[in-house]
Amino acid sequence: MSTNTPVGTAARPLRIAVVGSGPAGVYAADIVTKSEAVKSGELTVSIDLFDRYPAPYGLIRYGVAPDHPRIKGIVNALHKVLDRGDIRFFGNVDYGTDLSLEDLRTHYDAVIFATGAIKDADLNIPGIELDGSYGGADFVSWYDGHPDVPRDWPLDAKEIAVIGNGNVALDVARMLSKHADDLLVSEIPDNVYRALKDSPVTDVHVYGRRGPAQVKFTPLELRELSHSKDVDIILYAEDFEFDAESDRQIQSNNQTKTMVGTLTNWIAEQPEDLSELRASRRLHLHFLHSPVEIYDNADAPGRVAGIKFERTELDGTGNARGTGEFVDYPVQAAYRAIGYFGSSLPEVEFDHSKGVVPNDGGRVLDASGAPVPGIYATGWIKRGPVGLIGHTKGDALETVTYLLEDRDNLPLAAAPAPETIVELLENRGVQFTSWEGWLALDAHERSLGEKASADAGADGIQRERIKVVPREDMVEISRGGVAAEV
Ligand code: NAP
Predict the structure, then answer these.
(1) Is ligand 1 within 6 A of the CB of residue 212?
(2) Cα gap 172→207, rounded to integer Å
(3) Cα 425 off chain centre by
(4) How confident is residue 459, by pLDDT bands cut at 50, 70 and 90?
(5) Residues 6+ away with beta carbon under 8 Å from 451
(6) Ligand 1 close to Cβ of residue 63 (< 6 A)
């Protein structure tokens, strides 16, 4: 190929690397291929999608609760994109370890980071470091069979606190309180099922620091709590405070109106004498509780024995302030689900206060605030961990629009031939996985589900899939090792 071959042609396509194969990365790659410039034939692109995990789909595989098949269904749309064959997938490749920024710049004209946010935001209260105090995001990774978290999770608490009023808090509370057998229909890994089956939990308490009209979760996810079998929901009349600002929020936002309606119906239907409730497990929803301290156990130092909250009141602006009244709850475990936080990327500027890569509409900025040519970001690492999966599409569109606008001024790759990156990874001994490898792993997981269903018999629980959890097994099956063996 001549060095004068114009970039963006069939002979020398515009080479783009996308780092992260969750919804953000797949949407960005797909939007590039469907752009007007590409569709009209004015521009030819060649896209490689990298992921540090051996399997694709990021947050959908490792962040969505297993009993949410509707959201997991987004996988079908992402599958269709990657199955077309015009976007290559390289799994088990860690940016920063297996590939440097320099490597990506050598092989690609542009790089889009779509690495998301997987860590828990910090909650700086005394006792947060005690045994039995956990991050909700870590628990989510565990129950979703994330390859890099320990297989065992200590589920020895009868009473549990979950701090936060977002959808992750509801996921964590639902997974902790639901009976394990009711999760078997999902793709729950075996180790997770067994641990949940042995859990002695009786009471899970969810605490929001503001009122019922200021919750961050959504109506469907709230209503779903009442679908768990043998779990009673308990609410407290003293938490139902609505000020003028709450009324305004209820009137102006249909979601808020629906949720407040659901909560007020639940409390109205609740028996006055709670001892009339018959379920073996209870899920308590508390509002106007701000966490103050997690208590150490005097009899077993270093372990959680309780949690202290300051009661709050609404301040007229939609926020809450402390009242000076404190309440204690005996719990043996406390989960904070107060939001995710992005992780920094080697050789890329990072905003440590917001947990994002500094950017202007997706154009990544350097320390001086100037755009770094050829480097882009999309998804949660661009805008922070807020919004539903669908919002990521608009975000990707913005980033891709800027990338395509910049295309005549990108710092061109010195080694753009698609085979050179493969050679580099092979020379480094990186055990990367491919799209075909994922299809093999996918088939293997489904066949594990089929086998378990057959063993359970026609009247037993039918399982669509059982996830393979250890990274080395995922890699081996993807690379042709034991795919046929079930
Ligand atoms: P989130 O929606 O931002 O909720 C965080 C919660 O933590 C809020 O209630 C917040 O209260 C509270 N919080 C923050 N700091 C706190 C502190 N210091 N003390 C006490 N409470 C504190 O975050 P998320 O639950 O992690 O969810 C992230 C995104 O993923 C959201 O867009 C969510 O909808 C989405 N998601 C969706 C699903 C689904 O099933 N559809 C499942 C999981 C996640 P304030 O509001 O008072 O700040």
Answers:
(1) no
(2) 12
(3) 28
(4) confident
(5) 486
(6) no
Contacts of 148 (CB under 8 A, 6+ apart): 141, 471
Is 169 close to ligand 1, i.e. is its CB under 6 Å away? yes
Distance, CA of 248 to CA of 264 (rounded, Å): 17
Strand, coil or helix: 346: coil
Half-sphere exposure of 8 (CA within 13 A, CB side): 18
Radius of gyration of the chain (CA): 24
User: Ligand 1 pocket test: which of 59, 74, 167, 220 has the largest number of ligand atoms within 8 Å of its C-beta?
Assistant: 167
Domain boundaries, the chain: 14-118+342-432, 120-340, 439-478
Ligand 1 in reach of 125 Cβ (< 6 A): no
- Tokens for 471, please give them: 């990274």
- Give CA–CA dist 19/84, Å, rounded: 19
pLDDT tens figures, 353-371: 999 999 999 999 999 999 9
d(CA 208, CA 170): 11
CATH number of 14-118+342-432: 3.40.50.720
Structure tokens at 450: 């089929």
320 CA closest ligand 1 atom index: 47
**120-340: CATH superfamily:** FAD/NAD(P)-binding domain (3.50.50.60)
Question: pTM value?
Answer: 0.94
CB 271 within 8 A of CB 277: yes
Residues 6+ apart with CB under 8 A from 183: 66, 67, 175, 193, 196
Q: Enumerate residues 6+ apart whose C-beta is below 8 A from 271.
A: 277
Range 325-336 burial, b when 16+ CB lie within 10 A, else e: eeeebebbbbbb
SS3 of residue 387 by DSSP? coil
Plot region of 127 (φ>0 → left; ψ -120 to 50 → alpha; else → beta)? left
Q: Which are the contacts of 384, defined by CB distance < 8 A and separation ≥ 6?
A: 117, 342, 354, 355, 356
Residue type, 382: K
Q: Which of 168, 383, 389 to mutate to test the pocket of ligand 1 (most atoms within 8 A of CB)?
A: 168
Q: Is 210 in the pocket of ligand 1 (CB under 6 A)?
A: yes
> Residue type for 282, please?
R
Ligand 1: does its nearest atom lie under 6 Å from the Cβ of 163? Answer: yes
pLDDT digits (tens, 9 = 90+) for 190-244: 899 999 999 999 999 999 999 999 999 999 999 999 999 999 999 999 999 999 9
